[in-house]
Design goal:
single chain, alpha+beta, Transferase(Phosphotransferase), domain 1, 2 domains, five-stranded antiparallel beta sheet
Amino acid sequence: MELKSSNVQYIIETGYGLKINEIEKLNLGFDVNTKVFKISTIEQKHYFLKIRLKSFSESCINIPYWLSNNIGLKNVIDPIKTLDNKLYLMNSSSVFMLYPFINGNSGWDVTLTKEHFYKLGKFLYKLHSTEIPEKYINNIYKDEYNYEYVKMVKEYIKKNEKIHNDPIIIKFLEALEIYQKEINEIINYLENTVNEISLKNVCICHGDIHAGNLLISENDLFIVDWDTIVLAPKEKDLMYIGGGIGKKWSKEEDIDYFYKGYGHKNEVDKKLIKYYRSKRIIQDIYYFIKEIFDLNYDNERRNGCLGIFKSFFEPYNVVEMALKEMEII
């Protein structure tokens, strides 16, 4: 079903029993398979609607709800239940998830205080220490060593013919040539880590705990967007602290306040931190290549991919932080 406002209104009104006054599309996130809206009712109540178009797993909503209501992790936002008491509503191939609308700012738009970092540390330690009931475990993706993104990026760089008329592709190829040395260093590192790391000691991880997945309200912070929930070593999440994504969370004092909340800093495996930071960079580069060369995407999105790709190589951003971990620079 095409996502017109009238379709969304009908689905929400019949599924949740609300009387909608206004639907406002929000330009948040970078996932083409996710659409988000602010829903206002005639009673002047406000909700946040997330519509997942593809690749939905129940664990992204069941597990956060369980964590909030059974472990007391109140930095998770509970979904609004449907009229038939479900946590989400499925219509055709789309999944609708409704939440209370919380006035706040993305972690991209604010500077976290030492109290924020301390709270985030406490939250992640409690998350990583939680034993998930057996009935949920089988539905959660378990992380594994994945060479596919490395292979695909490496093959692309090797075989690419630099003859294109599209100005965005031309600019990307110019940037790719400038930064190819750093990309090759990260690829070489990943190719040589397969026998040096262990992914056996796993726990429940958010999987994508960067600044954009924090919502900072006047009184608290909330961890949002659990689509990437995964069973993995704790370093899967911890690599974001000091990882430089968006030039955020890289100051030594910020890292120190985080680990005051998290504790157990001496138990963090630095090899896994290096591995996950490097893996994320190559994975993102693969998706940038895929989208920039796909002319079905509009120029705004393709230019957005190009801009983020270039930003990776700026001082204090992800490439510099990953190479420092590898002691290459």
